Amino acid sequence: MSCAQCGSETPGQHGPCALCSPPPLSPDPSKAGTLTVRPARPDEDTAAGLGAAPVRPAPALGPGAAFGERYTIVEEVGAGGMGRVYKAIDRLSNSSVALKVMSGPAAHPEARQRFQRELALGRAITHLNVCRVHDLGEVERTPYISMEFVEGQTLDDLIRSVGVLSTKQTLAVARQICSALSAIHEGGVVHRDLKPSNIMLDRVGRAIVMDFGMAYQRGDDHLTDAGAVVGTLAYLSPEQSRGEEATFRSDIYALGLILYEMLSGRRPPGDGAPLPLALRDRSDPCPPPSRFAPDVPPRLDDLVMLCLQRDPRLRPESARLVDTALAAVQDGQSVTGIFSARSGFWRAQRTRLLVAGAVLAAAVLAWWLWPPPPPRAPLSLALLPLVYTGPEDQKYLRNVVPLLISDRLRNSRTVPVVPYTTVRTFDGSEPVDDVAAALGVNVVVQGTLNVRRDGAFDLTLTAQRSRQKEPDWSRQLQAASGSVLDHVDQLQRELAAGLRVAALPATAPRRRDALEHYLKGRTLFDGWDVASNARQAEEEFRAAAQADPGFPEAHAMLAQAEATLYTRDHQDGHLQTAEEAARRALALNSSSPEAHLALGVVQLARGKTAEAKETFEEGLDAAPADDALLRNVARAYAALARPESAEGMFKRARDLRPSFWSNHNELGAFYVRKGRLPEAAECFLQVISLHPTSDTGYSNLAAVYILQGRHDLARPLLETALKINPTPEAHNNLGLVHYATGHFADAAREWQAAIDGGVHDPITFSNLGDADRQLGLRKEADQAYLKAVAGLREQIGKGEADSEPRATLAMTLAGLRRCAESAAEARQADERRRNPTGSYYLAIAYAVCGNDEEATRQAVRAVEGNVISDVRTNPDLHRLLTQPALARALAVK
To answer: Does 580 reside within a domain?
Structure first.
C-alpha cells in the first residue's frame, strides 16, 4: 500500500507512516484502523435533530417493560422537571444505559429543544469525570436520551449518609469535579446546575458530573427569557438569582457551595434557614466551613470562601486554578500566588489590615475593588490562506504569500507560529475566535488578494486577537503592476513591527518559477491538496533550487524530502543528497530549522547520535517557539529507533503549546505505538477537550479502547466521530467493534462504508468477507475475499519482507475454503520476520481450516505480543480459548 502522506510503499497499512504526521500504528498488535491526524478545520454542527411533531408525555415504566424495540426497563432511578430516568438494558449492545425519558410538564417544544441541546452539549465533552451521552431518539413521539449508566450513589446521598466528609475525601472528590468542570468550560459550556445530586460517585470512587439539561454554550440561544432564573435555588450564584447571565464563575460559586457542604455537612451559611446564601443580604456574614468542622485546614477554608465571593470577578478565574489550589492543599503547600490579583480576595483583605494612613488604605481598597486588567497572554500566531479573486494561474499566491511570511516569522525567538501545513485547511474567511480556538493561538492573520488581468493587484492583511473587535495591525497594498511576491519581505517586517515582534533580517527576492516549484513541493510533501508524495516533492524542490540556487528554503526542503525517502528504502544515496542539500541551505541561512532537521536525520541514520542531538538543538535554538519543529524532531527519533528521545521531544512540543490539540494527539499516537495505552487515552481526552468539534480525538480514543478490548466505550466515540466527519477510517474501526461484539451485519455495513469511502486496503475486503461468512452469505463473502487476495498478491509481488501480507493472504484463502493454498502461504509467512498481528492472522487461517494445534500455537504468539482483545473476541478462535496453552497465555496477560 502507498502511504497516504509520503506516497511510499508501506506494508499493509492505510494511512501515513514513518516521518509523516503521525506515523501509522503498524506494527502495533491490533487490526484497529490507523490513527489519523487531521488539521484543524471548521466543523459542522453535530446535534441530532427531532421533527416538529407534538411531544407525547410518557407514563411511568415498570421493571421489564419494553421502551421501543431497543430498550428493556430495569428500574426507575430518578425523576426531575425534564422527565424520568431509568436504568435500562440496551438490547443492541447488551449493556446497561441510563434513559432520560421526557414526561409530564416537560412535554412541550421548549423541553424538546432542551433535550436536543443536552445531547449536543453532552456529546461535545468526553472526559472520564463527565457522564457520556450516547443518543437521542423518540418512541411513539416521546423523546429520550440514552447515556452512561453509573453504578454508585450521588454525592448528595453520600453527604446525607456520612454527615461530613474528611478533608482527604473532600479533596479527592473535589479535584475530580474540577477536572470535569475544566473540560466542560474549555468546551465553552456553562453547566448552570452543578449540585451534589448531579454528581455521581461510582463503586471505585470516580466522580462523574451529570445532567446538561440546564447547561448552555456561550454565545448560543439560552432557551431562557432574559431575566429568568435558571438552576436549583439552593445552588444558585448571586448573579443567577438576579436573572443575570451565568458564566464559568457561576459554576465556580456552585463548586464552592459543594465544597462547603462536603466539609461541614451544611449548606452555607450553616444556620439551616431555607433562604439560600445567594439571596441573603450582602451584609449577612457567612462563616468559613471550619466553624462547623475545626479540622478543615486554613488554606482550604480560604479557598472555599474565595469561591463564594458575591462578586464573580473576585472568584477564581477557572476550575483548573481551583484544582491547582486543591493540589497545593493536598501537598501541604501554600496557595498564595496561585490566583491573580483579580481573584486575590484574602490577600487583599489582609493587605488592607496592615496599611496605615487614610490615603494608603483608600489606595489599597481601590486596588481591591477595581483590580488592574490582567496582562495579555504571550503572543501566538496563525496566518490563514488569502481569500483570492483573479486569474486561475495566479491562485497559488493565496498560499505562497502566507506560507513565506509564516516561514520567516518562525525564526523569531519570541512568537510561536502555527506551521502553514496545519493552517492551510482554512479558507481564510472564518471567524477569528473560531480559528484561534481550533489552533490554540491568540492572533489570527487574514487577508484578501485581488489580482486583475492588467497586472494590478490589491492586497489587505489584518492581524486580530481573539475576543477583540479591533485589529492589532492592518495593511493595504495596491500596485499597478509587478508581483505581490516582491513585497513579501516588506510585509513580514511590517507585521512583525505591528505585533512588536523582534525585527527579522531581510531576504533576497525569489524568482517566480522557483517559488512555484517550491509551493508545489510543499503541497506534495505536506499533503495539502493531494496525498503527499515525497518522491514528487523531491523533484519540485530540486527544480526550485536549480531555478534559484540562492533559495535556502528550497535546499532545506530538498534535504528533508531526501531524508524522508531514506527512511523508506534505506538507500545511502538519499543520505548523501540530503546532507549536501542541508549543508547548502545552512551556508545560505545558518538558522534554517528545516536544514538542521534534515542534517540531524542524516547524522542519526549514520549512528552519529551526539552530533545529531547537537544539530537538532541548533535547529530548535533557531526557532525555539516552533512546536512543529519539535514534533518533526520527535518523528525523526521515532523513525530511527530512539523512542526515549522521541518522547522527550513530543513532550517539549506539548509543553511549549499545550493549548494546541495536535501536540497532545501526536504524543498519544506515539504512546499507542509503544503499547502505553492508558497514557495514550489521557492524551486523546485532552484532544477532545481542546478540540471537541473535531472527529480526531474521538476516533483516536476509540482506537485505544479497541486495543484494550473496551468495545462498549469505543462504539459511542466512533459514532460521535462519524456524525462530525464520516471518514472511512472511523467506519473501519466501528466495523471492528461490531465484529468483536458479534454484530456481524453491522460490521459488514461499516466495512462496506469504509470501502465506499475510499479504503482499498486488502485487509478491509478480507474483514468484509469475514463478516459475510459469519452471516452465511457465501457468495458475497467470496467476492470480498477475492478482491483482498488480488490486493495482497500485489503487495507480496513488491517483495515486502514482513510476514503480515502473507499471513493476511493465508487467512483470506482460508475464508475461501482454499486450505491447501492457505497452509502454503502460512508456512512462508512463518519463515519471514513475524509480528504479533501476523501471528493472529495465521491463528485464524489455521482455525478456519480445522488445524487447532497450529492455530493455538499462533494464537499464543499473538497474545505474547499483546494482541489480546482480538484473540479473545474473534469468533473463529472461540473454541481455542479453553486450550491450556492459550488459556495460560491469556491468564498471564
So the answer is: yes
Q: For residue 79, what are the β-bridge partners?
A: 84
Indicate the DSSP class of residue 403.
Answer: H
Span 223-250, pLDDT tens digits: 343 333 344 667 888 887 777 778 889 9
Contact 827, 807 (CB under 8 A): no
Residues 6+ apart with CB under 8 A from 868: 709, 890, 893
> Is 83 in the same domain as 190?
no
Spatial contact of 525 and 560, defined as CB atoms under 8 Å apart = yes
The answer, yes or no, to whether residue 11 has pLDDT greater than 50, is no
The residue ranges of DSSP E strands in 466-565, in sequence order, are 473-479
The terminus-to-terminus CA distance of the chain in angstroms comes to 32
Contacts of 51 (CB under 8 A, 6+ apart): none
Bridge partners (DSSP) of residue 460 are 448, 476
Task: Provide DSSP, 700-759.
Answer: HHHHHHHHHT-HHHHHHHHHHHHHH---HHHHHHHHHHHHHTT-HHHHHHHHHHHHHTT-
pTM: 0.50
Any residues with CB less than 8 A from the CB of 618 and at least 6 apart, and which? 596
HSE-CB of 297 using CA atoms within 13 angstroms: 18
In a domain, 395, yes or no: yes
- How many CB atoms sit inside 10 A of residue 284's CB? 12
- Please tell me the distance from the alpha carbon of residue 182 to that of residue 189, in angstroms, as a whole number: 10
Is 193 noted as a catalytic residue in this protein?
Answer: yes
Residue 6 lies in a domain: no
Which CATH number fits the domain that encloses residue 776? 1.25.40.10
Check if the beta carbon of residue 673 is closer than 8 Å to that of residue 650. Answer: no
Q: Which residues contact 750 (CB under 8 A, 6 or more apart)?
A: 731, 732, 734, 735, 738
C-alpha cell at 337: 500566588
Report d(CA 380, CA 474) in Å as an integer.
17
The Cα–Cα gap between 593 and 580 comes to 16
User: Do the beta carbons of residue 502 and residue 477 sit within 8 Å?
Assistant: no
* Residues sharing a CB contact under 8 Å with residue 136, sequence separation 6 or more, in sequence order: 48, 50, 115, 116, 119, 143, 144, 145, 146
The residue length of the chain stands at 893
Ramachandran angles phi, psi of 724, nearest 5°: -80, -45
Which position among 193, 627, 746, 870 bears the catalytic label? 193
* Number of domains composing the chain: 4
Task: Specify whether 622 is located in the same domain as 547.
Answer: yes
Question: Where does the pLDDT of residue 571 fall: very low under 50, low under 70, confident under 90, or very high at 90 and above?
Answer: confident
Q: What is the C-alpha to C-alpha distance for residues 670 and 682, in angstroms, rounded to an integer?
A: 13
For residue 66, the surrounding DSSP H or E stretch is strand 66-67
**Does the CA dihedral 669-674-677-683 come out positive or negative?**
negative
Average pLDDT over residues 675-685: 89
Q: Which of 721, 690, 725, 691 is nearest to 703 (CA)?
A: 721
Q: Report whether pLDDT(442) > 80.
A: yes
pLDDT interval class at 157 (50, 70, 90): confident
